[in-house]
Specification:
This protein has about 475 residues and is mainly alpha-helical. It contains 14 helices and four strands. Helix 2 packs antiparallel against helix 9.
């Protein structure tokens, strides 16, 4: 029941197709975000074109008649670009949050139906990490990753075309620098993929350690293990820090390179464009100004793509880990159909059971318990006393033999009906962080307060409950720490 090894791919198409299925019910938001991305790419190219035109036709010629009109036109495009940016940010994040809501619901629905073996072998902290932080990271695929990458690629494409149309000679100077930066970006992506996988793994380890130590704090303090656990925590926390430092190291190498390459290209553009303007007049001052703007607009998205790929990769790693849990084939079997009244005649017939393949806990056990009969099962620790109750409730599946209830195999009963008819006082009492009333009813709205009081009186705790503030609506806090 271990999780599958992560693929390590920078962009897993199959994984993304699976994620994209969750987009279907939010098609409107997806379409709006996509249209906004296209508009942003178009508006990005309009500004340098307009500015270059204004410089060549009005500033250089000292004509001011239509200057105000063109400046207002540029201002209008800026307003439209701002509106498109707002629409894009809102709908992209709206889409991302709704998708993770659906995935989180699906994941939790799956987890609460897992067999007990899964929880026996999987630390709670790892499950919490998947349900909370990993799923939250998935939202960044749509809110900050994928759409932003598409937007940046479109901007680069549009700007490149505009450059070629305006002045192909200056455009070629800029394009020479592109392969170098693209190659550096590719290396950066591969390095960051591995680094972020390590970061997510260490976050999970940290969550698991903290959750277990906080839950078992009494044991930690009772056996004076504070210093030992502190040293263990420092070690895990240090690994977490080192994993993040590795990502910082890659960033600190890449981004200075990503800054210097466009600056060199810009220097050559100004130098060659200036020579052309002075010697041949082929290049205008407006062309140079436009290329200065477009140089930044071409290379900035490429740098941002590298950064957004970090976000996308973190989201992909997180989604792969979440889907690994969703794909676990450990659901409780519920093929029974019987809902008839259960009288209480229990029969174990040659039951064999083992938690692992190495050793059987129960070896051919057989006994009968009649309705109303009281029995005591006595044995050493690990002999299988609690196991008998667990098997009767179908928390685990027996290896062989039969368990009968009123001469009917327990696997022929519907699971919920079977468990509703069996009352257990657990060895380790667990109370939810809620009221006494909700802990007794387990949030079953069909059970009235009067029925709860009657049950409490029958077992002698009614007076104690009434002595508490708010009586049956007293909040016992996590694990019942407010009770003694």
């Amino acid at each position: 029941m271990q999780e599958k090894k992560l693929s390590g791919k920078i962009f897993d198409v199959i994984l993304f197709k699976r994620l994209f299925k969750y987009v279907q019910r939010y098609r409107f938001a997806f379409v709006i975000a996509t249209v906004s991305v296209i508009l942003l790419a178009a508006f990005a190219a309009i500004r340098p074109i307009l500015l270059g035109y204004i410089i060549d036709h009005f500033v250089a010629t000292k004509k001011s008649k239509e200057l105000v009109t063109y400046m207002l036109l540029m201002f209008g495009f800026l307003i439209l670009e701002t509106i498109s940016q707002f629409v894009f940010i809102f709908f992209a994040n709206f889409l991302g949050q709704n998708i993770i809501k659906d995935i989180r619901i699906e994941l939790f629905q799956k987890i609460i139906r897992f067999k007990m073996q899964y929880f026996d072998t999987t630390p709670v902290g790892k499950i919490v990490t998947r349900v909370v932080s990993d799923i939250e990271t998935i939202a960044s695929i749509f809110g900050q990753g994928l759409f932003m990458i598409i937007s940046d690629l479109l901007k680069m494409l549009v700007i490149a075309i505009v450059m070629l149309v305006l002045n192909w000679r200056l455009a070629l100077i800029v394009f020479v620098a592109l392969p170098i930066l693209i190659y550096a970006t590719r290396l950066f992506q591969k390095a960051m993929k591995t680094a972020f996988q390590q970061v997510r793994a260490e976050v999970s380890n940290l969550n698991t350690f903290v959750q277990e130590r906080l839950t078992g704090m009494k044991i930690v303090q009772l056996f004076a293990r504070e210093e030992i656990e502190y040293k263990k925590f420092k070690e895990i926390n240090n690994r977490h820090k080192n994993a993040w430092i590795k990502t910082v190291w890659y960033n600190s190498i890449f981004f200075p390179i990503a800054e210097i390459i466009p600056s060199i290209a810009l220097g050559f553009v100004v130098w060659y464009g200036g020579l052309q303007m002075l010697n041949t007049g082929v290049t205008t001052s407006g062309d140079i100004i436009s290329f200065i703007m477009m140089n930044q607009m071409l290379f900035r998205p490429l740098r941002q793509i590298a950064d957004k790929f970090n976000t996308l990769q973190m989201g992909m790693v997180a989604s792969e880990r979440v889907f690994n849990i969703i794909d676990q084939d450990v659901l409780e079997e519920d093929n029974g159909t019987i809902n008839k009244e259960i009288l209480g005649y229990i029969s174990f017939r040659n039951v064999h059971f083992s938690y692992t393949e190495k050793e059987e806990v129960l070896k051919g056990i057989s006994f009968d318990v009649k309705k109303g009969e009281t029995i005591a099962v006595v044995g050493a620790t690990g002999a299988g006393k609690s196991t008998i109750i667990n098997l009767l409730n179908r928390f685990y599946t027996i290896n062989s033999g039969e368990i009968l209830l009123d001469d009917i195999n327990i696997y022929d009963y519907k699971l919920a009906h079977l468990r509703n008819n069996i009352a257990i006082v657990l060895q380790d009492v667990f109370l939810f962080s809620d009221t006494i009333y909700n802990n007794i009813t387990l949030f079953n709205e069909n059970i009235s307060l009067e029925e709860v009081k009657k049950a409490a009186k029958n077992i002698g705790i009614h007076n104690f409950i009434m002595s508490l503030p708010n009586n049956y609506f007293y909040n016992v806090k996590e694990r019942g720490v407010m009770l003694s």
